[in-house]
Amino acid sequence: MATRTMKERNMSDIKNSQRIVKIVITTLIYVFLIAVAISVLFPFYWMINSSLKSLGEYRLTVPTFFPKKIIWGNYAEAFNAANLGTLFLNTLFVGLVSTALSLVITVLSAFAFARLEFKGKNALFAALLATMMIPGELFTITNYQTVTHLGWLNSYTVLIIPMLVSVFYIYLLRQNFLQIPNELYLAAKVDGTSDLKYLWKVMIPLALPTLISITILKMMGSWNAYIWPRLVANDGAHSLITNGLRNSFTDTSGDVNYPVQMAAVALVSLPLFLVFIFLRKYIMKGVSRSGIKG
Amino acid sequence: MNKFKKFGASFVSLAAIFGMVACGADDYSGEDFISIEDVIAHAKTLSSASGSGDSTEKTATPNFNVPEEGYDGSEVEITFYSTQGSNLKEITDKYIEKFNETYPNIKVTHSSIGGYDDVRDQIKTEIPVKNQPNIAYCYPDHVALYNLSRAVVQLDNLIDSTISDGNGGVLGLTAAQKADFIQGYYDEGRQFGDGLMYSMPYSKSTEVLYYNVEAFNDAGVTVPTHWFTESETDTTSMEYVCEKLKEKYPNDIPLGYDSEANWMITMAEQCGSDYTSATGSHFTFDNTTNKAIAKRFAEWYNKGWVTTQTLYGAYTSGLFIADGSETSPTRSFMSIGSSAGANHQVPAKVDNAYPFTVGITSIPQMCENNKKVISQGPSVCVFKKSNPQEVVASWLLVKYLTTNVAYQAEFGKASGYVPVLKSVAEDATYAAHIANATKGNDYATALAAKVCLEQESAYYTSPAFNGSSMARDQIGKALPKILSGYSGKTNEEVNKFINQTFHEAVVECEQSI
Amino acid sequence: MVEGKNQWKAWIYLLPCLILLLIFTVYPIINTVRMAFLNGYNGMMAVGGEKFSFGVKNFVDVITYKEFLTCLKNTMLLCVITVPVSTLLALLIAVCLNSIKPLNRLLQTIYFIPYVTNSIAIGMVFAAMFNIVGSFFGTPNEIVTTAGIINNIIEAFGGTKVNWINAGSTYAANMTVMVIYIVWNALPFKILILLGGLQSVNKQYYDAAKIDGTSRSRTFWRITVPLLSPMIAYVIITGFIGGFKEYSSIIGIFGETLGPASAPYSLNTMVGYIYRSLSLGNEGKASAAAIILFGIILVVTLIQLYVQKKRVHY
Q: What is the CATH number of domain B76-205+375-426?
């Protein structure tokens, strides 16, 4: 009898302690995740904090964690000084056109690599992957010469065409296509469906999340491109947003007005952030579907 | 487990390979350098006339021949790259319009391309496809780079041309125009070893000494005129002033020097020691005088007398204008920086009054008879084009902008840089601007410009060649390395360390070309 | 399969991609190889009419260059340390995030924010956190205005402050800061990929493990890791490729000095070397260094693919 109650008590002790352990672990997990979240948010907070300071306060030896005096005018100045309106439209145009074209090229290539059979397919794909490993800086000089000979300088063409193909996206999408059962394709063949129709009706809808991910990555790429646009389109009319960001906030002696620059950066980041919040679900899905098969 | 072992083993062997190539300071001599007294004694034998090799003798023929008819009035489009901010660009564009009243067929596109390095990188990419601009802002090092492709027009034949400029004058410069340029600035265009003219000075600045007038009074010191204490009664040396200021304000730093490279190069110039040479073995800065100077400055640093931009981690003007409050407790009382940056050396007003008065004077020297200060700021060069008319038109614009007194005055006033022409001083608006120099902190730019103009005979130029930018870069990195590496070493170790640092800097320069 | 018929079709599908690649990728690569084998090739001199002889001098110059080994060592060290650390950390975060319900979406969104935070801001924050504001470190006249947030935290826990990135700091301290910065930068992408992977893992495996009473850590190593292995392999490979190209993060912390003032260039990397050669006009050396770097990345990737074939579960 006595031993039995002991056992029961032990059992409930164990259950209790298990519950305590579980609570402790859950708490630890939250503490850990929130600590990471804070460390991730800190630079973002710093960007906003800096963007609201006066240049004098920004330059203090010991930085302040909250602006003594909030200068909203930095945002207005950023918008006007960098001519952000025009740059915004330029960037949007270049971003949309290059994303659309890039998607077409990526889908066609990924389809060929995933579904069609041809001689040297694997060797070609491996060669494509290898090009990812060469530092892109080396291409710049030669490409500049090429686009000059083509007479493309200071045009939208030069901002869009050379950057269209991304092996990375083809790789991502091919992985996704590979997961769509081959039987569907063969069945479609028997039905006499054309490749293009099959691609349009079956593959694209199934790979939609990945395509959305690629869209967002490509848009962000256009948004953040700096070196190439500055080099090939510096006539003002075709400048993109990052070029405006880096050039416009210096005073006569070449000192950068960082608060205004930060304000401009915050303004520019906003659209990207909103896009992410609205499309988060698709991005997550897209990522989880691709790459499962290595 | 086995995997980790293998990994560890390969890691160890990797580390061993890296360990082998490391080469210690022991390979260098630990003997003392020349004494500072001897350096001073040598410097005293110098006079301004015996400046370092600015050979003006032409050893080659210019690469551009002026077409017989000069500028024929044909329609040409020329491009001009500058780094001017929007307010300066506005002024320039206004004068370009005036230029177009005389030459309506020369269409000028003036683009502002970021900073100086951005202009260089842009042009460097454009030259191979012959897409370079017609005119560009430049520093001598940039011109040396462009010269590798022989893309820069040597201006001599244009300057000397006596044919008509289509506007009642000559195409070239008249004797009066030539003489009006401040000599030191003008000579910068021909320091490329062949005596030919590659660039025209556009607007210039130099380094000046900013000091805190009240702090000087409180510490009982006067403006330092030379660097090193020469006798026990010497109270006008930088060393004496630093020592007194440090005694008075132990938690502050007496002197901030913005540019390490400028410091070393200017010291070499003042001491009459070698830095670089346009011909032969280019990198001659590894010598006992320069090392003795660097060692002495390391002692200063170790005493808490001086800091530099790299060591401080920001423009040292931030220290100079600090108010000693909780958020910026450390101050400096002297700051050596660009005369064009006077605005940044003025403290913010507290309760509508400045916390201290900014005094501006020329930097200390080694010898009064051999004053040397660096010349900075943009020049402009003209690029070759297949159509000679474009080159002549570009020259006309360059001539217009660099010899127009009204433009030089207005641009100088707005930018803080000083005009390159002597006669600008007589221009009414500019003279009025300079006259404000005595009116305190609100007119610091005027005072800086005045100090700058007063030392027009002291400007030196360093040779420019393929690798001269690397020499500047390396000497500018070597000084802070020596300053911060001095502490905790014996005298012999310090000497070895300095020898090693200079030697490695030269090797680095040589490997870069 | 209808092979013969599909041959030309496949090429048509690939045509736009291949044309663009030929012009803007393959041709530059060929040009790079050409420049690498022209002794002392300098683009500006070439325009000026200078002729260069064919040979391997550029490769010899690069390999015998003293700082080259520093660059190689830094690159290797950064890769070897940051890739495993960031992968493990990202995995841990992803698993934790996947195990909670409340705040899940909010945290996911927050973890993505670094993507839209400007790199200048990030670099400045990190420099400010580790930067000791003051002067004369290591000399008798040391002045410390503020030791930086990280040192404040260390001191709050009873430690002594460390000179992380300022003049006189040690290589180990510099490396630590670089590792933290790079890991921090790499986390969002890795979390995204791994979390995506986790969400597609079939819940049944975990239910089965629960019934068996398998411990958490055992579940993690025996179920989660194997099921995620393709994702893990993917982030490791892309991590290595990215790691070998590390450069901008060094600039972010140390600026153009690429090291503390007392040891300039001590943290330079392979791509840093390539950049510097390019900016000096030495395209020949830059190309040779790029080809060497390509070779290294290729070998590492091939080894990883080999290991992956043996280890990764599908």
A: 3.40.190.10
